[in-house]
Amino acid sequence: MMKSSEKKVKILAYLILIGLLMGIYFISPHFYKDLFRIIMSGNMQEIAKYISSFGAWAMFFGFILVLLINIVGLPSIFAITANGLVFGPYWGVLISWIGESIGVIFGFLLMRTILRSSAEKLIAHSKYLKKLDEFSGKNGFQMMVILRSLPYFPSGALTAFGALSKIGLRDYCLASFIGKLPSTVVEVFVGYDAFNYKENMTRLIVIVGLSVIVYGGIWYYNRKRVS
Question: How far is CA 117 from CA 16, 27, 35, 85, 121, in A?
C-alpha cells in the first residue's frame, strides 16, 4: 500500500503538471501543435529556430520542450542538442538536465499510477520478473544511477522499468538527477561540437574517447560482479 506521503507528492505533482500545461496553452495556444510537428521532423536546426522564436521566453520553452518529451518517453536528443545550439553548451546542459530529470520523474509517477498495480500480478507469476523486481528494490538506486548516466539510452524504457520496479520515489528522483547530469553533458557537448566540428574537433574527440573509456569500464566492472 502506498505511503500517504507518496500519495501527497503524486497529487501535488499532477496539480503542478496540469497547471503547467494549461499555463503554456494560455501563453502560446499553438505550442502543442507546433511541438508535435517539430518533434516528428527530427530536424535539430528547425527545433533550435523554434526555441529561439520565443525571444525572452526561449530558455523557458527550451526547458518545457525537454520536459514534455521526457514525460511521454520520446527520444529527447534532438531537443537537447537544439538547446545546446541556441544557448551554448553550458546553459544547454543546465536547461536540458533539469528538464530531463523533472520530466522522467513526472513520467515515473504517471506510469506507476497506471501500470504498477497490474504489473504486480504479472510479476507474481514470473520467477524471472520477481527476481528482477526484488533486485531493483534492494539495489534500485545504484542501478538507476548507472543506467540514467548512459548517454543515448532509451529514457522512456528506463522510466517504465522504474515504474514497474520496487524502487522508492525518493531514490528514483535522486538517482535520476545524479545520473542524468553526466549523460546530458555528453549528449549536449557531442551534439554541439558535431555541429561546430571545425572549431571544436579536439574537444569532440576527447569527450567521445573519455566516454568510451568510462562507460566501457562501468560495463566491464558490472560484468565482472555478475559473473
Answer: 24, 37, 32, 42, 7
Q: Give CA–CA dist 161/175, Å, rounded.
A: 14
Full pLDDT tens readout for the chain, 227 residues: 455 666 777 777 778 888 888 888 887 788 788 877 877 776 778 888 888 988 888 999 899 989 988 988 888 888 899 999 999 999 999 999 999 999 999 988 888 887 666 555 555 565 655 555 555 555 778 888 888 888 888 888 888 878 877 788 888 999 999 999 999 999 999 888 888 877 878 877 888 788 778 777 766 666 555 45
H or E element at residue 196: none
Between CA 108 and CA 101 the distance in angstroms is: 11
pTM for the whole structure: 0.79
Return the closest-CA partner of residue 156 out of 70, 35, 98: 70
Residue with cell 557531442: 190
| Residue 64: count of CB within 10 angstroms of its CB | 25
Instruction: State the DSSP code for 129.
Output: H
Name the phi and psi angles at 154, rounded to 5.
-60, 100
CA distances from 119 to 13, 21, 114, 115 (A): 22, 29, 9, 6
